[in-house]
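User: quick one, sequence for these tokens?
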């Protein structure tokens, strides 16, 4: 009997060791790139981080030396992507290092939030436009979806330390209030959101030279879809959602499409052009706040009425038109409305 018990204990120790040391290349690289304070950068020496790469020892040493850099960010899915992946990897193979790193990342997100509920694009580096409340590329909404899933113990967030549930729920409530405060009102009518805001006065703000204060045809979609996740929405939230959807409906552009056109004479072998298409409906990335007219901008920071007037590099390197609200208007909003009448 004693012998069997010894064998059982030994087997349990082996299983525990295997779980602790079980590896996933992508997850291990995420551990390596995580900053000391919990966040992740989006670049490694100006290039997008390749989590599928087998890094040489000299590179690993360099990455380790840079672990205290202040380039943690929520831009380009950074930090939220790593948190979700690490939790999935933990649930799959049981390596607790993955769970610990994900929880450290969640604590980073909670610490980075402003008291008014918004999140800066970068933290702790708040220089230039990095300090602004950032909806651009769904940065803040990605964070809120992670924290909301945590508060509900949903998806991969169900394994996270229960002590983080309360802080996550509080952060989400504050974030929702920030969303409601930043929805732009024009002539007394609620519209949508700018891609970034001054964190002090909630005013639409400029980020990069070609990202000027505007009504956003893309980022506003993610905001509305997040608000529609909330159960028993208040009248204020319902009004925010309905007003934004009405704006999307009023701001659609019919009869044109934004396409790739092969052109061997161009540096990339193609151009991006507007063509007539009677069956097409698109939205501009940016609209003038006062007039609701679409506008475009290059690195010179000068507004242009026609995207063809934007320099080639920016014309082909930015999403100036898209169909972002289409599924929201045609499917998601009607489904939400049927459940939230009155």
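Assistant:
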């Amino acid at each position: 009997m004693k012998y069997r018990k010894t064998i059982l204990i030994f087997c349990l120790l082996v299983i525990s060791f295997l779980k602790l040391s079980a590896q996933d290349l992508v997850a291990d690289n995420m551990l390596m790139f995580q900053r000391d304070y919990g966040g992740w950068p989006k670049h490694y020496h100006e290039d997008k981080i390749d989590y599928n790469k087998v890094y040489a020892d000299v590179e690993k040493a360099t990455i380790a030396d840079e672990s205290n850099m202040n380039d943690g960010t929520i831009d380009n899915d950074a930090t939220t992507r790593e948190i979700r992946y690490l939790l999935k990897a933990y649930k799959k193979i049981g390596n607790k290092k993955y769970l610990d790193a994900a929880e450290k990342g969640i604590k980073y997100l909670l610490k980075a939030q402003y008291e008014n509920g918004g999140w800066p694009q970068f933290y702790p580096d708040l220089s230039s436009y990095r300090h602004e409340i950032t909806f651009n590329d769904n940065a803040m909404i990605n964070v809120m979806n992670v924290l909301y899933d945590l508060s509900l113990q949903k998806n991969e967030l169900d394994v996270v330390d229960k002590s983080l549930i309360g802080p996550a729920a509080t952060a989400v409530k504050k974030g929702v209030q920030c969303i409601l405060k930043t929805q732009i009102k024009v002539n007394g009518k609620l519209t949508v959101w700018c891609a970034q805001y001054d964190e002090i006065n909630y005013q639409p703000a400029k980020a990069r030279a070609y990202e000027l204060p505007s009504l956003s045809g893309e980022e506003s979609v993610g905001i509305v879809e997040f608000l529609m996740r909330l159960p028993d929405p208040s009248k204020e939230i319902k009004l925010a959602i309905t007003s934004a959807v009405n704006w999307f409906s009023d701001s659609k552009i019919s009869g044109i499409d934004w396409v790739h056109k092969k052109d061997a004479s161009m540096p990339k072998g193609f151009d991006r052009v507007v063509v007539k298409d009677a069956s097409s409906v698109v939205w501009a990335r940016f609209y003038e706040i006062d007039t609701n007219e679409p506008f475009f901008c290059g690195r010179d920071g000068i507004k242009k009425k026609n995207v063809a007037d934007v320099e080639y590099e920016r014309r082909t390197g930015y999403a100036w038109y898209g169909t972002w609200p289409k599924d929201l208007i045609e499917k998601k909003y009607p489904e939400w409305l049927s459940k939230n009448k009155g």
